[in-house]
Amino acid sequence: MTEVRKAKTDIGPPHYEKMLPQIIKDNYGKWKYHEYIKSGVLKHVPESGDALFSVRVGSPRLLSIATLRDFADIADKYCDGHLRFTSRHNVEFLLSDESKVEPLIDEIEAMGWPVGGTGNSLNNIIHTQGWIHCHSAATDASATVKAVMDELFDYFKNDQLPAKLKISMACCLNMCGAVHCSDIAFVGIHRTIPRINDEGVAKGCEIPNVIASCPTGAIRPNPKAKSVSINEEKCMYCGNCYTVCPSLTIMDAQNDGVAIFVGGKVANTRSGPAFSRLAIPWVPNNPPRWPELVDAIKHLTEIWVKNAKPGERYGEWIERIGWEKFFQIAELPFTDKHIDDFIFSVPTFRTTSNFKY
Amino acid sequence: MTEVRKAKTDIGPPHYEKMLPQIIKDNYGKWKYHEYIKSGVLKHVPESGDALFSVRVGSPRLLSIATLRDFADIADKYCDGHLRFTSRHNVEFLLSDESKVEPLIDEIEAMGWPVGGTGNSLNNIIHTQGWIHCHSAATDASATVKAVMDELFDYFKNDQLPAKLKISMACCLNMCGAVHCSDIAFVGIHRTIPRINDEGVAKGCEIPNVIASCPTGAIRPNPKAKSVSINEEKCMYCGNCYTVCPSLTIMDAQNDGVAIFVGGKVANTRSGPAFSRLAIPWVPNNPPRWPELVDAIKHLTEIWVKNAKPGERYGEWIERIGWEKFFQIAELPFTDKHIDDFIFSVPTFRTTSNFKY
Amino acid sequence: MTDKKRPMLDELKKGKWPSFVKEMERMEEKPAVKDLLGLLETSYEDKTVHWKHGGIVGVTGYGGGVIGRYSDLGHIYPNVAEFHTMRVNQPSGWFYTSDSIRTLCDIWEKHGSGLTNMHGATGDAILLGTTTQHLQPCFNDLSDAGWDLGGSGSNMRTPSACAGPARCQNACIDTLHLCHDITNEFQDYLHRPMWPYKFKIKISGCANDCVAAVARADFSIVGTWRDSIRVDQDAVKEYANGGYDIFNMVVKKCPSHCISFDKETADFSIDDENCVRCMHCINKMPKALRIGKDTGATILIGGKATIVQSAFLSWVIVPFMKLNKEDGYAELKDLLERIWEWWDENAKVRERVGELIYRKGMRTFLKEVGLEAKAQMVKHPRANPYFFWWPEEINQAASSDASQEAAADAEVK
Amino acid sequence: MTDKKRPMLDELKKGKWPSFVKEMERMEEKPAVKDLLGLLETSYEDKTVHWKHGGIVGVTGYGGGVIGRYSDLGHIYPNVAEFHTMRVNQPSGWFYTSDSIRTLCDIWEKHGSGLTNMHGATGDAILLGTTTQHLQPCFNDLSDAGWDLGGSGSNMRTPSACAGPARCQNACIDTLHLCHDITNEFQDYLHRPMWPYKFKIKISGCANDCVAAVARADFSIVGTWRDSIRVDQDAVKEYANGGYDIFNMVVKKCPSHCISFDKETADFSIDDENCVRCMHCINKMPKALRIGKDTGATILIGGKATIVQSAFLSWVIVPFMKLNKEDGYAELKDLLERIWEWWDENAKVRERVGELIYRKGMRTFLKEVGLEAKAQMVKHPRANPYFFWWPEEINQAASSDASQEAAADAEVK
Ligand code: SRM
Ligand code: SRM
Ligand code: SRM
Ligand code: SRM
Ligand code: SF4
Ligand code: SF4
Ligand code: SF4
Ligand code: SF4
Ligand code: SF4
Ligand code: SF4
Ligand code: SF4
Ligand code: SF4
Fold first, then answer.
1. What is the value of pTM for the model shown?
2. What angle do CA C194, C199, C200 make, to 5 degrees?
3. Is the predicted ipTM greater than 0.85, yes or no?
4. What angle do CA A322, A326, A328 make, to 5 degrees?
5. Which tens digit of pLDDT belongs to each residue from D145-167?
6. CA atoms within 13 A of residue D156's CA, in its CB half-sphere
7. In what order do the strands lie in the sheet with B31-38?
8. Beta-carbon separation of C311 and D413 below 8 A
9. Helix D353-360 to helix D362-369 angle, to the nearest 10 degrees?
10. Chain C residue numbers touching D384 (CB-CB < 8 A)
11. Residues with Cβ < 8 Å from A40, sequence gap 6 or more?
12. What does the alpha-carbon distance between residue A82 and residue A86 come to, in Å, rounded to a whole number?
């Protein structure tokens, strides 16, 4: 460290109370109900009869301080200096004065920031670092998300979908952002086994940890080289060994790409939380706009919009019609890749003659 | 072998056609519908308009040739010499002449053989060898079945249950008779780890097979003794090592007993096949009539009869109300034993806040 | 032979359900049975079993069909010191003539205890208890009378089938013929254990699965159809007029909600494309509804009891197979041979086929036995991203480029 | 720094969704950002990443909060040769004042790239990219301004919470207060990695789980209630009169079928004993239905993503806990400490708590942390008979008798 001064540690985050607008302080915990004023605008009414308006603005999540300062100015102008961010990385401006809602919307949209993403709409895409910051990324996050959101933009603006549509993205199997329970999830994947740089392994890696890191036990010690060897048969390219040992290079530009999962959900409502399940094993990395990925997700979205009953989340729709019907309607090939062969595979097998052709 | 003569081999079983009554030969594959005439009596009507009557007689499955000859005589007298056995070990007399049905019933019941077990009744209890013939039995089969059937006899005679009630029994975890998918299943279990006779193991057992036989990997080689050792922490007393190695004695008269599972089903109807699940971890071996076992099964049966809706199999009833409610209604303690901790445990955990108190 | 009192067994002669003790006593004149009764009373006193593991006993030419059994109380009950059972292969569907029963009785009177199990859980007629020296003679007499033994040990086990077309309107396939045909075709596999472990085949004529094929067989054949359920509207109306609650007992319980029913007109119609053929509605209104006409079977694999990796229910590997009597079920038999070959080559000792598939993965199984992946094989697709690619599916050039990168990478570091 | 053209990035400035490229270009005057743009263009050309594993960098006194990052193209893009991120612990519920935002901006303008993620998937405000030498000064300024870092590495990760009582009528617990309280209570665990692996805590005010606690946290706190849903019949009628299809959209979708509704009178009643509190009906008629009054939380454990043993969703370990602000959430914190102690002692390197429980069994976990087994913990009880007995539960005398038998047995053989 260049500097000697040691800062005060363990002070924790600023107290949230300091951040709350007066109307929230007044009605904290006393909310009665909410209404959707229009797409992107929520009205929350407390027992006191006040009214809090939240204007939700779509964000790429990667924000410059220049933009953050713009937001601060907007907050000052319309919200007595109060705003928040959502668990899906949108911005929410908090107003106590209804008359300011439309002006705020006009101004922010004029600056190029879309208002929407509430109710039965496409929510913002949870995503991760990708090629902008993470060494582990099998695909890019920001570009794929941008390309998909551009294409599905109207679903964010309007709230006329059968239900909420939660799309999530992760750039490798570490799945930061927990895409494993989303209506539609896409994940960067590898398709070839790591190339071993023996020298690097010998120098830089804890061999026992490397071996332990493999979900399928594909890694064996290679004493001669003071390194490890990988059983091709057992390796499914998860990259976890690469996470613990940089000398097991798994990046493979020609073969890396994106897998798409569908039908997951987090809320306990009705059916309860559920995992997303494999729909499309691979689309190529095709910068800058990943057309194959965008088409696939658009298609997957549209068949749901077309076939789901009102109120049915993606997975609830599939559960009703059955996965075999889903693959028919989606016109997707069902392959051996779709059949689980990891630890908990057996409970996913169909142990009945009850199915549709 | 005392005798030199070698018999003809590989001739296979007698041809079934030789065994079929004329009415079946005439209408083979041409049946139109069936009716329940009364409990224990089925009427099958083919396109031709004939009528086949089947009288089902409850059997202990262990039958003497004396009794089999009695049955043969009855078959000659009423059925032109034709009878069959069912997949649950009952006897079925096959009549083409309706007028003979009642006389047959009168005669066979007079001999002490109950007619029933059809429709929504308690079916015969599938069971296994027990102490009559198997070295592996943790409990007896014939006596426990007899005791339970005596107690639930009326449910076999009448067909007024909410649905079919399939009770099955196995005398050890090998579960011959596949009790794992029954409305109510009871199974002989051990509760203490095998005692190792090192000498015997060294002499008589294939150590690799012994080690491989353990579902939980509790067995380690014990080179000094040319034997094996067992990790108490990991042994759940399944007895599979005993199956492959007689010198790992697992019988323990004080601690062996019976576990009771509920809610399984085989038919694909409606919900499809399902496993039975643990209700009561242990009741003692208490010959000759196992009163604790009988009471438990009677109780489990009665709460179902009382609470199930028409047409609901045991498991369908529980699925509707939820397992937590089942344990309340049954007034059974829920213990850590009820929580799966084997290979496929995780998918059985409740990953939602949706439950009843 | 002892003249021991048997208070506990006597207790088990009471009650309304037929008593196995009475059955045994009917044979008490046989010394073995008298000793068996004594041994059992002793077991009830001790609360434990008095049998030991069976040694290898059998009949010439066969590796299976006999279960050796010895008592640890042979010194007290000498007549059951040896007490082996023979498994006699039942006729398909367990149909008998009175004479065929008598033949079995006569043979067993001559050679054994006179006690039987009709039937064993796998389906055989079990002749319960005899001595080693009687095994061959007994088998000879059985064989002369046209009977053969069933399976035991690491071989194909005796196939069994439901009553099917002989007695049931729901039979989508000829269960009896198929069972008989397979049993005879594979006699060698049935009698001569040469496999890693047991392999069971069960055949049910419809989804009611009256032989519990899905729960108890490694290879489960379940009859079904491809076209549509036959509806007799008049008969439906009769049920309705008869006061039967069609809506609640049938329509509402349809698992795929594909029945529409008009309570007024009693018009009943099935959206067959969405019917999963679960049999429920047909079961509840047998006079009005019938199985389709284009029938065949669903093939499922892997069913087994608890040991070792916990119980498996069979899962779908062929959604629909048209079982052709004409060509002797060629497609089915061919599939069986391919499965056996793969299992035999790859399984560990005492590893059931379902457990092997679990270990190797369905993808390997399907490829090796030449089946195509179908969505009907799963309840739902995998949730984890741990799937594999076959070499031909990936860009091979890449790996080399990649290695170069790797190298480059290495330098940079 | 290069003046490379960026056709692909330019492409990503088009379209209606806000462009991250434009955001980056707003900071282009910063050399690091210019290089970052170049590096990214290169990644798009190469179709691969150009970052390497991070080394150990950080601020004095902390083991976490900073993610070290280096480029493998440092020779071409020197200003991102080092490009570490700092995780700033967000205020509960992500509420900010414009001034607090400006403060962060000023500090980050001085010390870093001027790029952020608002927010990271765990919840922190991420300051995206700076050099090693700026880490400490930046932290000092943050600390002086009242900000602290969040978690990274094998420690407790930054807890997060939904808007809860600040903005939502469904809040069954004070998510913001609880989140802030826990974060401060466990500062040491948050900043100093000393555990086998990461441990995440997320707090949702109700079963809608708006922070995806069950999917993304090892320890998931989900608000709920014990009494009954509050129904405002008049409001229900308003929905009905308004033409809202209460029967199909609400009643029929109730997972436990515990709502009765009279289409004529619009009488709406809930059988609360059978309500599983899934929130659906409340969500659909927020003006008519409200959460109960006797509120608390369900505690679930084990949630995590794919690596290693595939993704787990958290499962119930405490069906209902009354979270007492008064005693500073003593019960909850005590439970956390017990769980951490057991996990810390027993887990392998990089073994999440859910994976440890899977390996050791719930029975061990429950015993070690002192929780009682409850039926609410499982979807259904075990199907296999592989359960264990604690020494105190079995008849100890036995084993010795048994050994004697064993011996006897051995002789006989
Ligand atoms: C602002 C936010 C919480 C926060 O603290 O940031 C939030 C706020 C609300 N959620 Fe949420 N939810 C938020 C993330 C979530 C998540 C988490 C996620 O998406 O990653 C979930 C679970 C996702 C899932 O199920 O897969 C979630 C599942 C719900 C549900 C259940 C939806 C369903 O399918 O049944 C409701 C109820 C509803 O919408 O009727 C709900 C309802 C609401 C309400 C109506 C609650 C209220 O009255 O204030 C709020 C407005 C919803 C809306 O946007 O229309 N919220 N909500 C989050 C906004 C994210 C965003 O910017 O889009
Ligand atoms: C005779 C037998 C087949 C055989 O070849 O031996 C048989 C015969 C019939 N079964 Fe079965 N089932 C027979 C064992 C089974 C089994 C296997 C078992 O019990 O181990 C099952 C699956 C068990 C399960 O689901 O757990 C079985 C599930 C059914 C069902 C589905 C019941 C349900 O819960 O939905 C039906 C349909 C019905 O009863 O409405 C059925 C229907 C029938 C019908 C009505 C079919 C027909 O029209 O002929 C027959 C008379 C049923 C009755 O007893 O009321 N049969 N049936 C078996 C009699 C066993 C016994 O002695 O009790
Ligand atoms: C006789 C019979 C029980 C009965 O009373 O009906 C039986 C009896 C035995 N079975 Fe079984 N099994 C019998 C049907 C079954 C069934 C049910 C079925 O076949 O439908 C099962 C469950 C289904 C399955 O196969 O998984 C069954 C699963 C086992 C197992 C566990 C195998 C597994 O992989 O789970 C064993 C253990 C072994 O094979 O080592 C076993 C082993 C045995 C042995 C040979 C004991 C041993 O470990 O060597 C028993 C001999 C008892 C005796 O002394 O007569 N028996 N066994 C059944 C065969 C009669 C027949 O041929 O018809
Ligand atoms: C920044 C962030 C993604 C983002 O863009 O938002 C992130 C970034 C990284 N995660 Fe993550 N994880 C982030 C939230 C998550 C989440 C989601 C969550 O916390 O809600 C998950 C899934 C939930 C979970 O924990 O299971 C997640 C699961 C992982 C894993 C897999 C851990 C596992 O047991 O499954 C790893 C691998 C590891 O830790 O070695 C990982 C590792 C990493 C590393 C440190 C890469 C590595 O292997 O060292 C990434 C650093 C990227 C970079 O250069 O900045 N990250 N990571 C998130 C943290 C920001 C914040 O503090 O707010
Ligand atoms: S998902 Fe993978 S690549 Fe993306 S940020 Fe997380 S660890 Fe890095
Ligand atoms: S990539 Fe994954 S599967 Fe392959 S060796 Fe590495 S850890 Fe194992
Ligand atoms: S269940 Fe066990 S004890 Fe009973 S017959 Fe089968 S192997 Fe023997
Ligand atoms: S009894 Fe079962 S669990 Fe115990 S050692 Fe033997 S095989 Fe393993
Ligand atoms: S399985 Fe089907 S065909 Fe066979 S007896 Fe049962 S109902 Fe009839
Ligand atoms: S067979 Fe089953 S799925 Fe098909 S219509 Fe009848 S009840 Fe419904
Ligand atoms: S989780 Fe519940 S309380 Fe929290 S914001 Fe969502 S709906 Fe409101
Ligand atoms: S909260 Fe859910 S379970 Fe309870 S009544 Fe409403 S919809 Fe039904």
1. 0.97
2. 145
3. yes
4. 120
5. 999 999 999 999 999 999 999 99
6. 23
7. B31-38, B41-46, B52-57, B91-95, B82-85, C95-97
8. no
9. 110
10. 306, 310-311
11. A55, A56, A57, A105, A114, A115, A116, A117, A118, A157
12. 14
